[in-house]
Amino acid sequence: MAALAGMLQASGHRVTGSDENVYPPMSTMLASLGIHVNQGYRPEHLQPSPDCIIVGNAIPRGNAEVEETLKLRLGYRSQAEVVKEEFIRGRRSLVVAGTHGKTTTTSIAAWVMDQGGLDPTFLIGGVAQNFGVSFRVTDSEYFIIEGDEYDTAYFDKGPKFMHYLPELGIVNNIEFDHADIYPDLAAVKLAFRRFMNLIPANGRLIAGWDSAAVREVVASMGSRLFTQLETFGTSDDAKWQIRNTNYAGDMSSFTVYCDGKQWGQFRTPLIGEFNLLNCLAVIVAADNWGLERDSIAAALASFKNVRRRAEIRGQERGVTVIDDFAHHPTAVRETLRALRNKYPERRLIAVFEPRSWSSRLAVFQDQYAQAFEPADYVLIANVFDSGKVTEKGRALDTDQLIADISKLDKPAFALPGAEEIIEQLIPELCEGDVVAIMSNGGFGGIHEKLLGALKTSN
Description:
The protein is an alpha/beta fold and about 450 residues long. The chain is about 35% helix and about 25% strand.
C-alpha cells in the first residue's frame, strides 16, 4: 500500500492515507515522499471526498473510514485493482509468486532488468536497497511485481496475484501458509493453480522444481502448460539447475546449467541456497526477455538485497545484529541455515517474535522447534496481540516451543517482549556473537534498542 501510494503520486495524483501502526522502512519512505499518513481511522479523513479510496486487505467492515465510504457512496477499489488498471494493463508483466522469497526475487528481477536496459516499472513489498525505494514508475513496456497469495480486500477474497496479468510468472515454491484465510495446503495449491492458468500461450511459467507442491499443481494442469513451462532448481530433472555452489568469502558463487549444459557462472552477495534459487528464477526470466548473460551476471554481482532480509543493522562490542522478516518455519530455518554457513565459527543467537497470523496460531507448533535447530541460543517473544488469535483458533504455545527447542540441547527462553529480551541478552553477549532477530513487524524497535544497550554497557 505504501509503495502504491508512491506510484500514484509519481503519476500525478495527490495521495494521503490512514493507518494505525506504520513502522520503518515504509514509514520513512512515505515521509521522504511527503505523503501524509493520518494516525488512526476517522470519518473526517475523507473530507473533502477523494476521487478514489483504496482499501487495503487488512481493513475490515466496521472500520470508521470504510463505513463512511459506504454511507456516502464514494468510489473505492482494492490495491490490486488499482495496480492492474493504472499500471499493468497493456504492459509486459513479470509476476513473482510463491510462499517464500517473493520480495527478494522481485527485487533481484527489478535490478537485473534495470541493468539490462529494460527500465521497468516495479512494485515490491519491501525496500530494494539498489534503488532505495520499493517502487518506480517509468514509460517502459515492462512491469515487475510481487504477487501475493493473500486475499485482496474485504469485498474481494481472492488472492491479489489474480489481478496482475502475468506474461512471465515465477512460482518459487508452495507451502501451507496464511492459516487465517486458507484452511489447508489444498486450498493454497488451488489458488496457485488459478494463478498459473492466467499465463498466456506466449508467456512462461517459471516453476521451482524443488517444491513437491509446485510439481503437483503443474501436473494437475495437464498438457496446457507444456510449451510454457520453465523448471528450475537443484533437482536432476529441472531444466535450469544450480551446481557447484560456494558460500566462502564475501560472495556466493554458482554455475547455471540449462538442459544439462553449462550456461553461465554467477556470483552474488546473497547467502543461502534459497537465495541462489531466487537468482536462478530471475536468470530464467531475464533470458526469456532477451537479456545478455554478461549483463545478468554483472547485475547479480552488484545486487544489494532488500531491507529486512538478513540485513546487518549494526555492530557493537563485536556483536553483529541482524534483522530478518522470516516468520514461516521454513523461512526461519533457511535464514538460520544461511547465517550458520556465513558465520560458521560464531555463536548464532535467534530471537523470534510470532507476529504473522500463521506464526501466532498453533498450526506450525511442531515445525518451529526444528526450524531453530541451526541456532545456538534461542529467545521467543510472546505471541503478538494474542487476544485476537483465540478468535481464529489455538495460539502458538511458546512454553511448549521452548521445551521442544531445549530438547535439541541448546539454551532457549520465552520472554514477554523486546525489553525483557534485551535485559536477558546484554550480560550474555560476547564478542563475535551474531544475533538474528526475526519478525514481520516492528518488534518494539528491538534492533536499535539492543545496539544502544550494547553501546552503553561497555
